[in-house]
Amino acid sequence: MGRTLENKKEIVADLKESLSVSTLALVIDYQGLTVAEITDLRRQLRPSGAICKVTKNTFMGIAIKDQEQWQPMSELLNGSSAFLLVKEDLSAIKAYQAFQKATKKTEIRGGVMEGRVLSEADVKALGDLPSKEQLMAQIAGAINGVATKLAVGINEVPSSLARALKAVAEKENGDSSESASESAVVSED
C-alpha cells in the first residue's frame, strides 16, 4: 500500500519546515547503511541540533522548488539520498565525519549553503573550522593578552619616569659632589 496524497503533502511540509530553520544542507549517499546505523548517525547529530532526513529525492525536490536558497540542491538529488540539515552549529559536520570514518559506508555528494553548492572539499573545510566556543575562547584570549600588555605599558610609564628622574637627580648630586671636591682641592692651593 502506497502513501496517500495527504501523507505526501505532510512529508513535503515537514521538509520545508526543517529547511526553513537550516543554514546548511548536506546530501549524502547512504546506500548500505542499516537502520541501526542511521539511528546512530541521528544520535550523534542531536547535540549539534542537526537532523538527518531520509526521504525520496522527489519529495525534497518539491520542498525546494519555491525556495531560491535551496534550489542548487536539485543537482545533488540522485541515488539513495539522506539529508543532513544543520541549523547553526557546524560541529554537525565533524559528527558526520566521525560517523563516516567509523562506518566507511557513506559519501557526501555535496551541500548547499546560502544558495551555493558546496563540494565535498568545501564541506570538509567547513568541518575543519573551530567551533563557536573555540573561536570565542580565542578572541577572549587575544583581548586578555592586549589588555595585559596595555596594563603593563601603562604601569611602565611612571616607572620609567621615576627611574629617569632618579638618574638625573643622582647625576646632579654626583656633579655637586665633584664640584665640592674640586672646590676643596682648589681652596687647598
From TrEMBL:
One of its GO terms (cellular component) is ribosome. Residues 169-189 are annotated as: Disordered. Residues 176-189 have a biased composition (Low complexity). Keywords: Ribonucleoprotein, Ribosomal protein, RNA-binding, rRNA-binding. NCBIfam families: PRK00099.1-1. Forms part of the ribosomal stalk, playing a central role in the interaction of the ribosome with GTP-bound translation factors. Belongs to the universal ribosomal protein uL10 family. This is Large ribosomal subunit protein uL10. The gene is rplJ.
